[in-house]
Amino acid sequence: MLFNSLDFAVFLPIVFFLYWFVFNKNIKWQNFFVAIASYIFYGWWDWRFLGLIFLSTTIDYFIGIRLDKTYTNRKRKILLWVSIAMNLGLLGFFKYYNFFLDNFESAFSIFGYELNGNSLNIILPVGISFYTFQTLSYTIDVYRKKLSPEKSFVSFAAFVSFFPQLVAGPIERATNLLPQFNKTREFNYEESKIGLRQILWGLVKKIIIADNCAIYANDIFLNYNNYSGSTLFMGAVFFAFQIYGDFSGYSDMAIGTAKLFNFKLMQNFASPYFSRDIAEFWRRWHISLSTWFRDYVYIPLGGSKGSIWMKIRNTFAIFLISGFWHGANWTFIVWGGLNALYFLPLLLLKRNRKNTGAVVAENSILPSIKEFFQITTTFLLAVIAWIFFRSESLSKALQFLENLFSRSILNQPEFFPLEFAIILLLFCLGEWVGRKNEFAIESLPRFVNQPVRYSFYLILIMILYLFNPVSSVEFIYFQF
Predict the structure, then answer these.
(1) Residue 286 is a catalytic residue
(2) Are 466 and 460 in contact (CB under 8 A)?
(3) Cα gap 68→192, rounded to integer Å
(4) Are 124 and 95 in contact (CB under 8 A)?
(5) Of 197, 284, 326, 396, which residue is the catalytic one?
(6) Which of 148, 171, 205, 335 could connect to 288 by a Cys-Cys bridge, CB 3.0–4.6 Å?
(7) What is the torsional sign of CA 173, 175, 181, 185?
């Protein structure tokens, strides 16, 4: 069920009505209803995978209970590793089985041995990477005694399957989201209005920006040998905006939807394309995943402490694992490695924590010349890395780059969608003005009176209708 589909447009009001007007008297029944609604939402794609999420939920629920009743370190470690093995085992099978099999066969073929393994026609369950990491963080936090285990199976099941963020995040920590299921929730009119604005802006990102960028980016990446370097550069930029509009748009819709039910989800994007260096970019892009790897992988490995070689090792480990998390393809691993190379000079020069506070141009309308140069450089580095992320194979990515950096990069592009370019420019302007907020139009009521504000919303809805592609485009991160 897509957020931008008619199905969800019918589903959400029904769930909202029942949640607040039928099940609002008893928090246990309210949580039970959230879990049922979430399973219906998830099962809309393929009901067969409901058993998988239920299995993951059951394993970590009972392991959490046992961890609280087990006092010897050895037994507690065994329980932790059972959870890790089961969750990563399921994820590894569905997501990486064929990848490892193909590469294993290729490795032996180098030495003249031909192996014929049995490839499986495996369907990747939607959102498995997200809810697997969510349940793992719960078990790890209970093991570390940062969190008491949840006694109610219904509350835990609702936490794992919470439908707004189930299939593409944010990857919520149990320390943030789980306690909210055990508190009485009352309808908050102001938060609901903010939530609706955030859903609207998420739809703008997804339909107007991402889906229209996809039209041009898909054509250019598919036919990269037929276009000049200037057109290929334009295609790479379009994909950069496509993946940002697609993924951050989903996050905005998820967070906004949660607010309608008086749940607070963590911010997942914070104007990443206005970052002044690659370290700041990764603090602002897919925040829930970046902080997950920081807390559960990077810091346990030693973080930025220790020798230079340990710092280098930890940096590459975190980015390569992040790349591999995104998909079973060497393109994602190279994408992660390239970002590690970007990050490394900042780490070694101890400049990776330089831009951790205020947003760019905090007290001014426009960035300084230096800031503009930093933002542009960081954006271009991200665009180059996105080429590997988007390409179907390493060979195609390298050929794309070779064609991009040819003399034809100085040629006039074969086409230029001027009308859409203006829309994209206005979108960037809106994002810039709202860069201090959780989403661009969050503070609109403070600056614009009601008639003007409602006229603006109406214009956005009209543009959504006018620029809505004929066919609905699935969210990119559903494949991860």
Answers:
(1) no
(2) no
(3) 37
(4) yes
(5) 326
(6) 171
(7) negative
